[in-house]
Amino acid sequence: MDLSKKTEELLNKQIKIEAEASQTYLAMACWASNNSFEGFAKFLYHHAEEEREHMFKIINYMNDRYADVIIPELSKPERKFGSVLEVFQKAMDSERAVTKSILDINSHCQELGDEFTATLMDWFIEEQLEEEVLMQKMLKKIEAYSKSELGIYILDKQVKKMELK
Ligand code: FEO
To answer: What are the helix and strand counts (H, E) for the chain?
Structure first.
């Protein structure tokens, strides 16, 4: 069974969302690095890679289904931030928007009875839950450590030691 045109359109849109998320995390990582936050930079570079893997996961699935993959033009990510807290607040907002988009694709697949794409979306839903929980935990810590100027550098050192998966 071929993918429906609408599913193809939604998956192509998701490829762009994941690719732009990757670019956004890269820009955030560069900002962190330029501001001597090595731990946060490492965390954000790692996340940029993860988003790229998500993009490939959809590309590979579409290619397996002989669908028409469109490699998108990307918008330029924001690269100036006022603080680590602002970076992670924006990262949290971005993850929530990604989750909404994944849930929309999942609902569409359920309605259509497209079990294959729905199964792919199940993987993404689990992944998004993990990412939102991780981001929420980071945000809580950053909010607490941002109360003193030195605190955020102490947290940065801890983040540098974090095992990233
Ligand atoms: Fe691929 Fe963090 O969403």
So the answer is: 5, 0
Residue ID of nearest Cα to ligand 1 atom 2 = 95
Residue at 155: amino acid letter: L
Distance CA 22, CA 47 (A): 7
Rounded to whole angstroms, how far apart are CA atoms 39 and 145?
Answer: 14
Ligand 1: distance of its center to the CA of 149 in Å?
30
Q: Which residues contact 4 (CB under 8 A, 6 or more apart)?
A: 112, 114
Instruction: Indicate left, alpha or beta for 52 from its phi (over 0: left) and psi (-120 to 50: alpha).
Output: alpha
Task: State whether the beta carbon of 131 lies less than 6 angstroms from ligand 1.
Answer: yes
- Residue 27 contacts residue 35 (beta carbons within 8 Å): no
Residue 1 tokens, joined: 């069974």
List CB contacts of 128: < 8 A, sequence separation 6 or more. 95, 98, 99, 102
Residue-level pLDDT, tens digit, the chain, 165 residues: 789 999 999 999 999 999 999 999 999 999 999 999 999 999 999 999 999 999 999 999 999 999 999 999 999 999 999 999 999 999 999 999 999 999 999 999 999 999 999 999 999 999 999 999 999 999 999 999 999 889 999 999 999 999 987
Tokens 């095992």 sit at which residue? 163
